[in-house]
């Protein structure tokens, strides 16, 4: 397998129909030499009249830990302006998507892999930083309630199953959320990423089971709105809460984002807020 490709734009993935891979493949990265575009500007290779960087942010970075549980992050990449190559954007997106169903032993291993592959493609050292979605360095805004994402669970299935939804006898009122919601567009197959908030009054939900259930949408194909309705209906059927609100805030795609919510009559969502991935 070629580690990366360097060729003309005629062979670049941009503008071509492409499947979205879910397993790691460094060969997806497509390098484009900078020299061809710089020559008409009178810029000679090896004698740049400037210093600089190309700074990229990726809001759809995800992988699996050793137990199969998804991890999500926002990445910041910095390519030096004196690198011989830039990296074509769609190939970069497809490469990152290939991490989605790939297991890594640690966050550090993910960073090491990204640094190695991207630096090889660029022909110079690329800087990589990973941020948690709730990191205040990205945004001080976060969903209200308690986050489920640090629960240590083992996951083996990635299709939704209401069997994971379990409740106890105690009646509670609480707000829970997760950033691990992912599904796929039923038309294009493109991944859809989101954060989901669940506010309810009723029998206490088993949190590990709830997180397992939400992760189950990871390979499910459906529209954003239908996923929220799917979650709402499953919770109503399995937990029978007195009150329920399900709200999802999806990552922007093509300049559009959507935040559908469904609730029992009388319930209203929290005040609108934009999260770091939006």
UniProtKB/TrEMBL annotation:
<feature type="active site" description="Thioimide intermediate">
    <location>
        <position position="185"/>
    </location>
</feature>
<feature type="binding site">
    <location>
        <begin position="224"/>
        <end position="225"/>
    </location>
    <ligand>
        <name>substrate</name>
    </ligand>
</feature>
<comment type="function">
    <text>Catalyzes the NADPH-dependent reduction of 7-cyano-7-deazaguanine (preQ0) to 7-aminomethyl-7-deazaguanine (preQ1).</text>
</comment>
<dbReference type="InterPro" id="IPR050084">
    <property type="entry name" value="NADPH_dep_7-cyano-7-deazaG_red"/>
</dbReference>
<dbReference type="Pfam" id="PF14819">
    <property type="entry name" value="QueF_N"/>
</dbReference>
<feature type="active site" description="Proton donor">
    <location>
        <position position="192"/>
    </location>
</feature>
<feature type="binding site">
    <location>
        <begin position="89"/>
        <end position="90"/>
    </location>
    <ligand>
        <name>NADPH</name>
    </ligand>
</feature>
<keyword id="KW-0560">Oxidoreductase</keyword>
<protein>
    <recommendedName>
        <fullName>NADPH-dependent 7-cyano-7-deazaguanine reductase</fullName>
        <ecNumber>1.7.1.13</ecNumber>
    </recommendedName>
</protein>
<dbReference type="InterPro" id="IPR043133">
    <property type="entry name" value="GTP-CH-I_C/QueF"/>
</dbReference>
<dbReference type="GO" id="GO:0033739">
    <property type="term" value="F:preQ1 synthase activity"/>
</dbReference>
<dbReference type="InterPro" id="IPR016428">
    <property type="entry name" value="QueF_type2"/>
</dbReference>
<keyword id="KW-0671">Queuosine biosynthesis</keyword>
<comment type="pathway">
    <text>tRNA modification; tRNA-queuosine biosynthesis.</text>
</comment>
<dbReference type="InterPro" id="IPR029500">
    <property type="entry name" value="QueF"/>
</dbReference>
<keyword id="KW-0963">Cytoplasm</keyword>
<keyword id="KW-0521">NADP</keyword>
<feature type="domain" description="NADPH-dependent 7-cyano-7-deazaguanine reductase N-terminal">
    <location>
        <begin position="20"/>
        <end position="130"/>
    </location>
</feature>
<comment type="similarity">
    <text>Belongs to the GTP cyclohydrolase I family. QueF type 2 subfamily.</text>
</comment>
<dbReference type="Pfam" id="PF14489">
    <property type="entry name" value="QueF"/>
</dbReference>
<feature type="binding site">
    <location>
        <begin position="253"/>
        <end position="254"/>
    </location>
    <ligand>
        <name>NADPH</name>
    </ligand>
</feature>
<feature type="binding site">
    <location>
        <begin position="87"/>
        <end position="89"/>
    </location>
    <ligand>
        <name>substrate</name>
    </ligand>
</feature>
<comment type="subunit">
    <text>Homodimer.</text>
</comment>
<dbReference type="InterPro" id="IPR029139">
    <property type="entry name" value="QueF_N"/>
</dbReference>
